[in-house]
Design a protein that fits this description.
The protein is of the alpha+beta class. The chain is built from 1 helix and 4 strands; from the N terminus they run ββββα. Helices cover 15% and strands 25% of the residues. It has a 4-stranded antiparallel sheet. The chain starts with 8 loop residues before the first strand and ends with a helix. It holds the Pfam family DUF397.
Length: 60
């Protein structure tokens, strides 16, 4: 299982909303994504490679 090694950051697009996503760096320089309401390390994470994350960001 890939784990987040950085601090989770909330999306800047979410502002004061409670339905948000948070993103953190993984050990392999990919990204881990979680629901912002999930505040435990035991919850599910969507993990993607560095290349996949870069491709995703290029879409916007």
């Amino acid at each position: 299982m890939t784990e987040a090694v950085g601090t989770f950051r909330k999306s800047s697009y979410s502002q004061a909303e409670s339905n948000c996503v948070e993103v953190a760096r993984t050990a392999s320089n990919g990204r881990a994504v979680r629901d912002s309401k999930q505040q435990t390390a035991a919850g599910p994470l969507l993990t993607v490679s560095r290349e996949s994350w870069t491709a995703f960001l290029r879409q916007f």
